Amino acid sequence: MTVHQVEPYNAEPPRSVLVDAVTPVSAFYSRNHGPVPAADEESWRLRVDGLVTTPLSLSPADLRERFPERTETATLQCAGNRRAGLVAVKDIPGEAPWGPTATATAAWTGVRLADVLAAAGVSDTATDVEFLGADVSPQADPPQEFGGSIPLRKAGMPEVLLAWAMNGEPLPPVHGAPLRVVVPGYIGARSVKWVHRVRVTDAPSPNFFQASTYRLLPPDAEVTATPGEGVELGLVAVNSDFLTPDDDAEVPAGPTGVTGYAFAGGDRTIVRVDVSADGGSTWTQAELGEQASTWAWRHWDATVDVPHGEVELLARAWDSSAALQPERPEQVWNPKGYVNNSWARLRLRGV
């Protein structure tokens, strides 16, 4: 893993380990905002309150006993994925220079959030569902628990889980044990780890990490956003990148196989990926792999003609809404370094 920060622990894997449809737990990227909290499953309780008729206090065992178990294969992607490409345009102080692997896919097991909300009875005036984790972050002043919310309409969808396992194994502490939220199609920040409270509300969360941090600011904005400034990040924009060969690799000149991933948030799917070895003058349409679920990435592969010497390969993806990645990182640069979904670029040397 490339470790961007030891405490809190933030790390991403090498490109090549993401070539499988489901990512090994040991290679799943880790994005944290505070120390991993000590969690005891026996004493852990999930509080469900707010605009509900029957507040609940549920242990992990209660969740297993009261609600049907579900498994959903879903990709999570950090809003800062591929930030390094924006840093190359202009420095972004204080932010981890994530490469293209702050994204991964797992088979998540737990219960549907919708089932738990139905048991609590949601008020007709509710519009949002807020999650609070047990991790306390010093990034906020004063320090506060990490949290965020999603619209009630999304919370009621069957793919949103309160999960206790990934890839058939209990959640590791660094990935949210004993319980985390999984919100497919949304930025990873909404899949709150170590969740101990679900609060039904009539407004988006005022938590620092939703109101002030995970927001898309214009290029000339101050780095520190006032609450509510900019665009609240939610659905993942269409994105893609290369997985093999590695960046700056030497390869035999001539026909060369390349692979990568592409992903789009919401319920959108990837419908096309193109690869170019001549700066975009001509394009080769990639072969798309099978998609494990509506909520998972799609791998792709293509063969391109690599010349002798240095070459930069390009890749671009379309999703099912006909959205296309923007061409250059300069077009999407912002002072927090979020949502770099510009065309993927891979440097190779043909020998």
Automatic annotation (TrEMBL):
Keywords: Metal-binding, Molybdenum, Oxidoreductase
Cofactors, names only: Mo-molybdopterin
Record-given protein name: Sulfite oxidase
Taxonomic superkingdom: Bacteria
Record's signal peptide: none
Domain Oxidoreductase molybdopterin-binding span(s) in chain numbering: 33-208
CDD domains, sorted: SO_family_Moco_dimer
Organism of this sequence: Actinomycetospora termitidis
Keyword match Metal-binding: yes
Domain Moybdenum cofactor oxidoreductase dimerisation, residue spans: 238-348
One of the Pfam families matching this protein, by short name: Mo-co_dimer
Entry-linked PANTHER family: SULFITE OXIDASE, MITOCHONDRIAL (PTHR19372:SF7), SULFITE REDUCTASE (PTHR19372)
